[in-house]
Design goal:
3-stranded antiparallel beta sheet; Nuclear Transport Factor 2, Chain: A; two-stranded antiparallel ribbon; alpha+beta
């Protein structure tokens, strides 16, 4: 298995962790100084969280507000030791509104 295959497998496993709404497993994939930026936020320019605990706190409302959140149609790209995932987030807000939005992780 090449390093690229290893990274692709890790990216697929990360999507699985998101689909399982497993915040501990998600942060296990991330460096301690990881950054989460969410553009859909009431603050100008969105939210910016750094580190495991801040990222966990930043992601928790997504699963609370979209209890059936799911990530599908994922594709993964690897260049050297870097990877990117692209996916579609679907779910139903607590208000009953259904959403479907594209997203990505680097």
């Amino acid at each position: 298995m090449t390093d690229g295959d290893t990274i692709q497998n890790a990216l697929r496993s990360l999507v699985d962790a998101f689909n399982n709404h497993d915040l501990d497993c998600i942060t296990d994939f991330l460096d301690e100084d990881c950054v989460l930026e969410i553009c859909r936020d009431p603050k100008p320019f969105g939210s910016h969280s750094v580190g495991h605990e801040a990222v966990r706190k930043g992601l928790a409302p997504r699963f609370e507000g979209l209890p059936d959140a799911g990530y599908s149609d994922d594709s993964h790209f690897v260049d050297d030791d870097s990877g990117m995932s692209h996916w579609t987030l679907t779910g139903t807000r607590l208000s009953g509104e259904r959403i479907e939005v594209p997203g990505c992780e680097f």
